[in-house]
Each structure stands twice: as structure tokens, then as C-alpha cells.
Specification:
Blueprint lengths: L1 H18 L9 H16 L9 H20 L8 H4 L23 H29 L1
């Protein structure tokens, strides 16, 4: 019984396919499809937007130049005394002695403050950037 049903469906499908005319696409079918694909790709493409704009980079560069210039010109005689209190020259291990590269260095207070400020800003920006990229990947 199943064989008769299969034979009947096969005959019916042959008749339907035999009666239907073969359709051919229009002359510019490929060109129209390609333009639609290009339109879809450009519409959904993400454009690059820098995280820090050029204006902010300029302000950061001017700030760094100003801090370095001020520390060189205006405050060369101010010495940081808290670096001497750390006694970095006494770093010793049981069998190895490390020379202190900062033993003869005297840093001005503005240089120390600028360095600490930059480290603070770095510690603030790392979690913000991580959060930004995590949201972007979701």
C-alpha cells in the first residue's frame, strides 16, 4: 500500500514538474543582488571611533609638557625627603646584593606628585576600559 502511495506521488510530481515552465532570472539579476548585499554590508558596518579623541590627546600632551617643564625650570631645588626615608639602598638578600639605582637621585616634589597622579589616573582608567570593552562584546 505504501508502495502505491509512493508511486502515485512520484507520478504526480513528474506531471507537475513536466508542466511547469523553467523560469530564468532577469538580465541584471546578479547585479541587483550584489548591490543589495553591498547596501546591507555598509549599513551594518561599524565605524571606528577612537576612545580618546584628538582634542583630549592634545590636552594630555600639553599637561605632560607643562608638568615636566615646570619641574625642570621652576622647582629644581625642592627635594623630596620621603624617598630618602624609604631607605632603598639597604635592599639586601641573603646571597645577592642589589645596587640601588635611585641612590644618587633627588626628585622634585612636582615630579613625584605628577608621577603619582599619572599612576592614579591609570588605576582609574583600567577598570573603566575593561567595563567598556565587556559591554561592547555583549
Amino acid at each position: 500500500m505504501k508502495e502505491n502511495a509512493d508511486k502515485h506521488l512520484d507520478d504526480l510530481s513528474r506531471k507537475v514538474i513536466g508542466k511547469s515552465a523553467v523560469e530564468s532570472p532577469s538580465f541584471d539579476f546578479t547585479q541587483r543582488i550584489m548591490t543589495q548585499i553591498k547596501a546591507l554590508n555598509t549599513a551594518k558596518a561599524t565605524t571606528y571611533v577612537p576612545l580618546i579623541s584628538k582634542r583630549i590627546w592634545l590636552l594630555i600632551a600639553l599637561g605632560v609638557v607643562a608638568i615636566v617643564g615646570y619641574s625642570i625650570v621652576k622647582a629644581p631645588d625642592s627635594k623630596s625627603s620621603w624617598l630618602k626615608d624609604l631607605s632603598l639602598n639597604q635592599m639586601q638578600f641573603p646571597s645577592i646584593e642589589f645596587p640601588n639605582p635611585f641612590a644618587g637621585q633627588d626628585f622634585s616634589q612636582i615630579t613625584v606628585y605628577a608621577t603619582l597622579f599619572m599612576l592614579l589616573m591609570l588605576c582609574i582608567q583600567i577598570p573603566l576600559l575593561k567595563q567598556y570593552f565587556n559591554k561592547r562584546l555583549e
